[in-house]
Protein 1
Amino acid sequence: MITSPDAYFGAGGHPIDALKIWQGGMGIWGAISLGALSAYVAFRRKRRSTTFSTLADALAPTLLIAQGIGRFGNYFNGELFGRPSTLPWALNVPVEKRPHGFEQFATFEPTFLYEALWCFIGAAILTYLSRYLLRRPGTMFFAYISLYTFGRTWIETQRIDPAHLLLGLRINVWVSGFLFIWSTWVVFRRTLRPRSASTLDKI
């Protein structure tokens, strides 16, 4: 709803449409935030021997793998590709699925493939860093956000599908950039500073 407001608040749209995931799926930001909220509510309903932050750390690498696999759905739907390209791995897009103004181009950057590969690489990096980032619960999850948004910020600048702009940049670029800066700051703060009890550690 935030990054594509016209689909829900514009002519013919309705806010309730954001919940109809069977009509096109859910954006990654909504999927992660609502998924995390649902998992937290379910976690709190039963007494556990660990904290939710520890659970989130354990799930972080698998979330990246799941996101990477999910991106291949864009290939079958012929969507979310990038600029025209003649690279050997460029995607051949049918005329009816080419964006307005790009009908004369046949092959495009497979940005969804770039994101899938970045997710898999990110999962490997998180797994390697786990020995250093598991000292404080929750740090791995923030590292997951940092890694994903770092790649997403660049990938988003390559896409040519319709999107809302803010100061000449796609809104998703701003969202990714903000989340990257914030999560990276949290990771460094929690890694470099001496451990002290915090609200997040106890969640």
Protein 2
Amino acid sequence: MPGAPYIKLKTGAPVGIGEYVREFQKIFRPVFNAADVSGEGAEFDRLFVEGERFALGDLEVDVLFVPGHTPADVAYMIGDAMFVGDTLFMPDDGTARADFPGGDARTLYRSIQHLLSLPPETRLFMCHDYKAPGRDDYAWETTVAEQRARNAHVKDEVSEDAFVAMREAKDADLAAPLLLLPSIQVNMRAGNLPPADKNGVHYLKVPVKLSA
């Protein structure tokens, strides 16, 4: 997301995102006391709805909502290629966490099943890869068939309840990502920094609440 304003500046391309970014903004606007954030997605040029199709140059892109990691996650289908966002990882690495505010393991499972209902030959492109233990190289492309056969967390024989129990147990032991607080403040502003203070400097906040 931080690169979006630069790309827009250089190309004139609008910045779009799924319409449920509103939920993301409403969760985090009070956390950072971000009065400049609309809570209605107005920072973005276009808000996509489920099932919408839009043009990307000569390509046609279909929009699929896949919440669970956050309430706002979206995947994009171009031809036989699905860009899955923060839902699935490579088969040996499983799935994204679901413990961020607005996230939900059961919703994530159902979103993944939506993705895995696509034709088996559909190519899936990952948003992240953390090189699962035993693998030295980064990877980014797999297929629906491979995920259904080998995904460490959600292959075909894994039930919804089993997935939820596993995901919630794993998430309970995960630390917050190092750059989580800065990235949220930029992402909810469509890649822009918070407004500059009176001295002309932009600041990213660290919320601190002390008990009485």
Protein 3
Amino acid sequence: MIKADEREKLKKHFRDKLLKYIELFNSTVSSPNGDWVVKGFIDIAKNIYTISIDTKVVSKIMELLLFPKICRFAEENSLKMVLCKEQNFYPDITFVDDKNHKFALDLKSTYRKNDREVNGMTLGAFTGYFRNRSSKKNITFPYEQYAGHFVLGVIYSRAEQASDERKIYRLNELQNITSVVRDFCFFVQEKYKIAQGRPGSGNTKNIGSVTKIDELVQGKGPFVTLGEDVFDDYWMYYLTKDMARAVDLKNAPYRNLKEYEQYKKLKR
């Protein structure tokens, strides 16, 4: 086991190295005027088909664009890269240094709802490998083996006017295609620093992120003052309504951070 102070140094060192590549990531995905460099898909007849504004489509293309630069980061910093075996495995990428310290990195993207807030992100499961930290199911290495868990996040704005997906363009019309997203903001934060006290969207058992832009970029979520150990404890024992009923509880012990602090008798 890594001592707490050494672990903090390792995490800071890894994050500092990755932060140096933020400008490279930004220039990879955006043109000088802030537009996305991707305009559409091209076939062998040189027809260009515009991209859907669907967040899953944008996210996947973003990953493809960034991957060569992330490989460059690993190579230049003597880090071994281990990719997830399946789409639903955690994390997206594992970095291993020369002393076998492991760092988890998930690539996440979300769009601005306004100048202050984004739609939000999910930060991985709070069941399975998160609770059984020696488990090898749906995770590249057991959770307990990681020195740090990070998010490389990108915030973007969606085009005010959606492109007509029925229209097919030619190469000489490239400048007429409106980029579906623009104005990118990259950040690197530890997962617990941008997590909130409720699950992400949908029915999946995933940790939700904070939605204020400054809290995401600066890593100022509610668990920052409480610490990573509290974050781990909170989510390891968090129960949804269905999970509570499954163990014959009328209600979950807590549903948010305020109730958790009361339940645990924590003092700020």
Protein 4
Amino acid sequence: MKVRKQHLQLAIGALFVALAWSAVSYYARGSGRPPVPAPGGGGQPPLLGRDQPGPEQSAVRGIDPASIPAPPSVERAAESASSRDPFLFGSEVRDVKEAPLVVAGGSDPLVRSILLSANRRLALIENRIVGVGDQVGDFKVVQIDRDAVIFTTATGERRRVTIRGPVPAGAYR
């Protein structure tokens, strides 16, 4: 490729445009340092008056804790937020009746997963999350262990049901 005089002129012109753009943007936004006040105080008046404390003066004087208003109650905010369904408009009301979990007579409930944390023990039984004390059909959850859930029946019989459900090929329990 042969470099022509027009190519060189175009490159030098682009360089000058880039330098000019850089200089204009630098001076338009400033250098990031505060301006130096003119001697004799002929510049702008300070943003805060002498009687208003600045950030460095408020620490020296201190703030009276009684003058700070109390924050809004968290309990009221939590009640109002949880009592309203975000998917309904205005005064609409949704009647949701939770259907009882039905387990086939004589068979144990299907335990699909067990969730353990420091504070809670939950189990996924028949596609529903339950905890200790919850009723699952004719069974009541008494205890949730690492690999099994212990139920009691209406007659008082205790049943230990281990985790079952579809296991992908190659997965180990």
